[in-house]
What does this fold into?
Amino acid sequence: MSDNFKPKIVAFYCSNCASSAANVADGMDKALPDNVKMVQVPCTGRIEILHLLKPFEEGADGVYVAGCQEDSCQYVTGITKAAKRVAYVKNTLEQLDIEPERINIYNLSAGKGQAFVDVALEMNDRVRELGPVLSE
Amino acid sequence: MIVAEQKPIKEILEMVKDYNKILVLGCKGCVTVCNVGGSKEAAILASTLKIAARKTNKKIEVEEHTLERQCDPEYVDEVKDMIDDYDAIISIACGVGPQFLSERYPSARIFPGVNTKFMGGAVEHGMWSERCAGCGTCVVHHFGGLCPIARCSKSLLNGPCGGSSDGKCEISQDVDCIWDIIVRKMTELGRLEELLEFMPPKSWITARDGGPRRLIREELVI
It folds into this structure.
């Protein structure tokens, strides 16, 4: 893919573990790529399938969800529900001949500021490699 | 409720590939309850179609609307002023919806967005199971409140067949033998003798065997 390609990425992150990790990252002066648009939600369980599809409809090249570890969700099953919805959208993308790797979910812990930045960089690299959604 | 599931996206895309202005039409009845054809699912399908268009660089317009029901003429009438604005309508109601739409709007191109599966209920969140075959003459009270017509693979009315093993049907380990359940329940209730009562052969004339069915209630006809 062209070095000039700068993917549009939308990230949903919960206001608990992932948000705390974001604060730690901020304190460590770790910057996220500026092409990652962050959307904070009360819990990843609130993220509907439509929320995950809309960014792709509106021009995003990648979407990811950053939430809690499966055993530490404040609302018990929020991250589990989110994982199932991400899997659903992966399947939808596959049916549309779009790479399912364009959407992913990550389990973070509150103190892992570096991990919060690392997942953004990982998704950025991955989607840059895949290129734009549009067929050649 | 009538239980349905969404058609594969590729099948839907193939159906509407020649159309550029599409309306996804949901229904607030059964298909909303089974999470396949309500306003939420209409929005998901509309978004999916737009993503497909983005992928293929095709210019399309997709909108969504959800009717109170698609099986009542007064609600189907609700879209009369908008139907001509679209090249294609994808109904995500049960199989009744696209037919009522086609009858009301003969020149419109109506496509089914879901496959209608059965009459049943939710046994768990996200899991539905068949309960009624619509035979037209309900007999569940003879069988402990359980329907062997809908729930026995052979619709047997006189006991389990040789394919019943350890409470499962021979067609799959995922399918309970309803006759095993009926016999166990009637035994527990001390009513097993009721299953020995003579019953004449069931008339299937009220089922599909009697042809397409209709129901007229004179007290309701205007």
